[in-house]
Amino acid sequence: MQQEKITFGIEGQEVLHFDSIKLKQNINDHHEFTIKVPHTVIEKRLAYTIENAQQWLGKTVHIILGNKNNFLGIITKIRLAQKNHDQVGNKIIISGFSKTILLESSKKMHSWEDTTLQEMIQEIIKTAAGDQLQNQILPEYTSKISYQTQYLETDFQYIKRLARQYNEWLYYDGEKLVFGKLASHEQPVSLTFGIDLLTLDINIKVVPVQFSAYTYNDDINKLYQAKTSNEVKGLSALGNQVLEASQNLYATASFEYGNLATGYDMYLEQNLKKRQESAMADANFITATSRNNKLKIGSIISIDAREEISVNEAHLSGRDATKTQFKNQQIGHYIITQITHLVCDSSVYKNSFKALPASIKKLPEPVVSLPKARIQQAKVVDNKDPQGKGRIRVSMLWQQVKQQKTPWLRVMTPDAGSSESVGTNRGMVFIPEIGDDVVLGFRYSDPNRPFVMGSLFNGETAAGGKINNNIKSIYTKSGHRIVFDDTDENEKITIQDNKGNQFHIDSATDTIDVEALSIINLKAKNINLTASENITMSAEKSININAKENMLLFGTKQVVVHSDKYVDIESFEDLQLTAKETNLKATDLLDLTAKKMNIGAQTDLLLSGDEVVLNGVEKLEIKSPDINEVSSTATFPFKERVVKREIIDFISNEKI
Q1: 43 exposed, middle or buried (CB, 10 Å; 0-12, 13-18, 19+)?
Q2: Could you give the CA distance from residue 78 to residue 15 in angstroms, rounded to a whole number?
Q3: pLDDT-derived band at 649, boundaries 50, 70, 90
Q4: Range list for CATH 2.30.300.10 in the chain
Q5: Within 10 A of 102 (CB to CB), how many other CB atoms are there?
Q6: For a designed S-S bond to 188, which of 64, 152, 302, 600 qualifies (C-beta 3.0 to 4.6 A apart)?
Q7: Is the full-model pTM beyond 0.90?
């Protein structure tokens, strides 16, 4: 088979002479090339410099290996390799990577909300490479992702991580970056062992293929669990034997947290199934060498092996039995996942490659580390949780520069949950305010799963605990406060609202003060006020004590009702004063008035005074079994104006 001429150029200009080209192509990674050209191709003879060659640095290399087998790369290194003083054999060695190297500019931090994989990756490529990197981004996973973070990763590392987490195909086909499995419209390249396939190794190996995982959805407080099955689709007969051997050798499944925060069991199960398919993809593979320059990453190949047939078989099949005859044995269809091209003098070509069964559903996982997120500082940008669950949205320091923010996050508190009596908000509820500085932690160190660990003061908001750190306090945004003061000999606790109403405990004087600017209301089934010594009640105006049924005043020694001006004791029915001795005393006048009045004594009733006047508007009767004689000095001033209708009668059974 005549070998096609292989050429390469830089920035569209063909370089006519080169000694060798080595091109290594792998799935899930950058491609690497090394090209050696004679020193005199670009530099002046006898010049010990790379003055002209240095202009190639950062330029685009175009290698044409064959029909529809092109490679575009970027020169990242130039070296002058000198062997002889006379410059015979001196080489300019240029090396570099596929155009995917444009995505390795630096580590970055970025976040997306409610975005698809396709939109994220297209945005990354557009920002980092502009139109320099052709791409075809068609991931299998098309749903919107609520939150995704690129965390101290280069753009290419991040894309590799997404390919690993979502089990998507990722490779550079020589000209464009492919994310997601594409349907191949090209016919398989036929290779026959012994003709254009120089060597062929068929490999199988056991691999762990049983996985189980869990993840948690805090929105609905649900734990999800899933486990892979014992069946993997897309395997050949040989692949199924490898699967069975792998399951027998590695009999127990893994148990780990899901590498994605999924929202339901089904997707977690699908994710594990894809991971199982990725693991099995590399359990059966071939390695081979050939001279076919049409091969590249992603090529589908059909491999046959030539087998010499006997003379009888040749005769029976109608072939010339006098010559050696062969028949082809189908080995299988494969997809190339790794290939190294070697070219010498533009026409001597050879490659070595690795290929997996073409029926595989997934490629092997990219080798890339998952980022480990560290504690982050953030600022609260929203606390009006649309679901009313006390969550907040924050913007980390690096997000603030880009005006990005997290989704709604839970806030850690010393105590949180529910009980039989309290369905929600049992515990301590302190939701940070907008503008507050908070600290974020990350579940499993996953940058996509942040939560709020607590709050921080800063140089503008901090006041500290005052002298000797004696002050501990809780202040709300409107000024309500609880202040604990541990100052020696002046300990106190104050609960105060923003108007000055307060409850004050003074430990130094053993005093509790309750102060309200308007009204203090005490309401209970029963209220008991007990003092070991005195209870004092005072008011600038009035004290009203009201009972709908009974009101009792008890004093073991004395009950005093005193007023500087007026005391009014009133009952709509009965008023009863009971005591061993009762004294009613007035400095001027004592007036007892009633519609009817009875004054009685079980033994003696004594009415005395300098002057005693008994008035009856109509009649005055004094009755007794025995009436003593009136003292000779006593007088009864019965006035005519008082006795209008009848003459006063002194009636007695005895003589006066």
Answers
A1: buried
A2: 15
A3: very low
A4: 7-102, 186-205+283-364
A5: 18
A6: 302
A7: no
